[in-house]
Here is the input.
Amino acid sequence: MNGSLLSHPHRKNRLHVLTLDPVLAEDVCARLANDPRTADMERVAPPGREITVPDIDALAKGTVQSRVLILDVRSFALPRLMNAYNRAVGYNRRDFNESCYTALIGDGPPALFATRHSFDVMADQLARFRIDFHAAVFFFDPFGHYPHGDRPGLRLDGRHGLPRGIPKRLAKWFKRDDLSVAEVRRYFRAASTSPARRQATKERRTHKLQKILRQRIAEITPDEGERLLPALSRTGLKVQGEALAVNVYPLFFEDWIAELMQRGRKP
Here is the structure.
């Protein structure tokens, strides 16, 4: 029988992270390793600092043993990874939202934040993600979204040309305007803090990030800011005409992954 038609209900306490971005892979795995609810799970991510498409292809079949798949669907990565993602989805199709769950980390279309309707322009994209990847949760990555106006002059790293610097619209809230995405991700997960202080420091910095994003929302849509604030909550923001909500990475990320892992354990 074709492997894509089989069910694989007896899965391990394991999670797969599929991305070309070593910085994102490191951030996801480190966050889950430092959370007591997910610390004992096995985290499978592509190896090395120069991840290739064949690296992701090689991981696809092994996803049938994982309870959660985390897919990077940001526009810089998605076109190159669709074939690998389609293979992973095919292998797990019969088990999605029963013994296997998908969490997506993505950006938005160029028109995002260009109109007063803001996240509502993502409805078609979210519907496609929900259908194509059987998504249980979608996280918008504010440090991975670059509108067309931000892209000229971007510093790019790696063979896949992933952006190195944070988006211009967010730089003004930091003391340095040349911060890299890697530095920002390490800061908000309190990577350099001692283990004894890490959780408290991370919580404090997460509140700081929420404050920055609230200010950004108020700046974008001063008349509709309150309507968009659920995006910063645990439940996320429902956009017009779509069931899949918009959450914001990394807010409540560990909460969601712990919950999805628990759902995957149920008989």
